[in-house]
Amino acid sequence: MEQEFDGGDLELGDVLEDAGSYIRYAVTYRSGDLTVSGIMNVPEGDGPHPVLVLAHGYIDPEIYTTGRGLAREQDYLAREGYAVLHTDYRNHAQSDDDPENEVRLRLGYTEDVVNAVLAIRDSSLPFLDGDRVGLLGRSMGGGVTLNALVVQPGLVDAAVVYASVSSDAVDNFDRWTRGNPEAAELTEEIIDAYGPPEDAPGFWQDVSPVTFFDQVTEPVLMHHGTADDTCPIEWAHDTRDALADAGADVTLEVYEGEQHAFEPQWQASIETTAEFFDRHLG
């Protein structure tokens, strides 16, 4: 929250696909000292088009390929007339590496999303409308989106989160890191650096977006399924309640029986998402 952000140098690379109603490009942009890769779907027509930055959920960086994640959302929203920038994040695909990112609780991903928006706003590409920008994040990317909203109030015009991780960093640490045998070394590094949550509550509060929800200025739409066994529905209720208590404009759409991946009711959710962005970015 205290650091300066200076995202820029958004550049189109190769055409990856002509989908008829949009062209899919490889892109890069600057995030601090790093170059981050991604894709951009640019709708047909001169524009300028409103822009959505997409923040994907966890995919092992060892198998991740550029633009992977949120494929349905990338396609649908581009066909609805939005230019869609899907960031790979640092340490993914062709992006530069940040060896400290895991110990820093992946806060580098938040930097990359903030800088993606700033790169759009700074861009001279005539088909992008840098004055109309929204965020969409899923699962881990939902947490990244919540982080971005509290780190840079007013950064975007609206935000959508799907099946998000908790807005309390301790929940996430306990669910996927502490107690996970495969993350024993990382757990030790994090605790050595900051202390465990029970001994260093101030630190863990300060890396939890829920602590700063009074900073949020954008309307937020949340989607979550009751059968989500990755990110429990209780987390969504807690986040919605905390945002509302802080005075934010927040709506939680609950999908009975829907799981983390959103399959049967995804179409209904994406139509609601498009309508939400149309209202706030139109």
Automatic annotation (TrEMBL):
One of its GO terms (molecular function) is carboxylic ester hydrolase activity. One of its GO terms (biological process) is proteolysis. Gene3D superfamilies: alpha/beta hydrolase. Signal peptide: none annotated. It holds the Pfam family Peptidase_S9. Keywords: Hydrolase. Residues 73-282 form the Peptidase S9 prolyl oligopeptidase catalytic domain. Transmembrane segments: none annotated. Belongs to the AB hydrolase superfamily. This is Alpha/beta fold hydrolase. The lineage of its organism: Bacteria, Bacillati, Actinomycetota, Actinomycetes, Jiangellales.
